[in-house]
Amino acid sequence: MRHLLTTETLDRAAIESLLDSADEFLDVLHRPIPKVPALRGKTVATLFFEPSTRTRMSFEKAAKALSADMMSFSPSTSSLKKGESLKDTVLTIHAMGVDCMVVRHEATGAAWRVAEWVDVPVINGGDGAHQHPTQALLDCLTIRQRFGGLDGLRIAIVGDVRHSRVARSDVFAMATLGAEITLIAPPTLLPLDTTGWPVGTSCNLDDILTEFDVVYLLRVQAERGGASVFPSNAEYRGRFGMTRERMSRLKPDTVVLHPGPMIRGIEIDAAVADDPRCLVLGQVTNGVAVRMSALYHLMGGVTVE
Question: Which of 63, 90, 160, 274 is at 20 to 30 A from 232, Cα to Cα?
């Protein structure tokens, strides 16, 4: 694997290898000193052209836990403000000597372009509404921990699917691991075309709510127009929000996931977010381990004990 840009091209063996390594790195994170020298002497650059809290900090924590050095880029204080192009910015940082670039950008395909310009591994930290592969891997790891595997599981992905890079990444990773996926959303928040997607679709959550092992809630992406295509937040919550009442109707072992940030009271009730069957904080912890795994695989880390 040269880069990690999408889950669409990852086969089952590649995904399982990344998850197996992440399991091992979780053990590292639970040690009194949660750090190994696997990437000592290497430098990871995070190029985030779009706001991020958990993904950026998760990558930074992952790189430091592997003893790599970090370089962070902030567009608001960079030469982009003086008119420098994306390509020149990337090539300038590359010329300083980095061994891996993590790229987040609002434009679809930005990470692919960066991968064409540099000769170091590139990880897509999220490109527009397109892909977010490490989020999908951490979601798969979280589900695998709970159920032992994804084969045969029925997973509902609920909410603003149209604008969600998380949904696109999850669909292909989870299906590759054997899950059956149903996208549930208002018609205006479903993708215009799901040809080639290994999914079913529905616009009625309540009719099929009790069928699922995993209910994956998505954030309504107001910044991409997601909140402008349904009448009100109250109407959305009434039809697609994970309320306490809906939670009570789920199968006893069904779990709830969310990529964050959660909008309590719209996508998810506070009581559900704080319920033990809501695995959001586990997803965050697993995110560090998955990103350690991705960096380790791409940068040729040395074996650690």
Answer: 274
pLDDT digit string (tens) for 266-277? 889 999 999 999
Query: Do residues 258 and 269 make contact, with C-beta atoms less than 8 angstroms apart?
Result: no
Tokens, residue 30: 């639970």
pLDDT at 222: 64
Cis peptide preceding 231, ω within 30 of 0: no
pLDDT of residue 229: 65
- Over residues 70-102, the pLDDT tens digits come to 999 877 767 777 778 999 999 999 999 999 999
The number of CA neighbours under 13 Å toward the Cβ of 291 is 31
For the beta sheet containing 43-48, the strands, ordered from the edge strand earlier in sequence to the opposite edge, are 69-73, 43-48, 100-105, 122-127
State both tokens at 200: 């079913």
Strands in 122-235 per DSSP E: 122-127, 154-158, 180-184, 199-202, 214-217
Residues with catalytic annotation? Answer: 54-55, 82, 104, 132
**What's the predicted TM-score (pTM) here?**
0.94
- The owner of tokens 């592997």 is 66
From the number of C-beta atoms within 10 Å of its C-beta (0-12, 13-18, 19+), residue 189 rates as buried
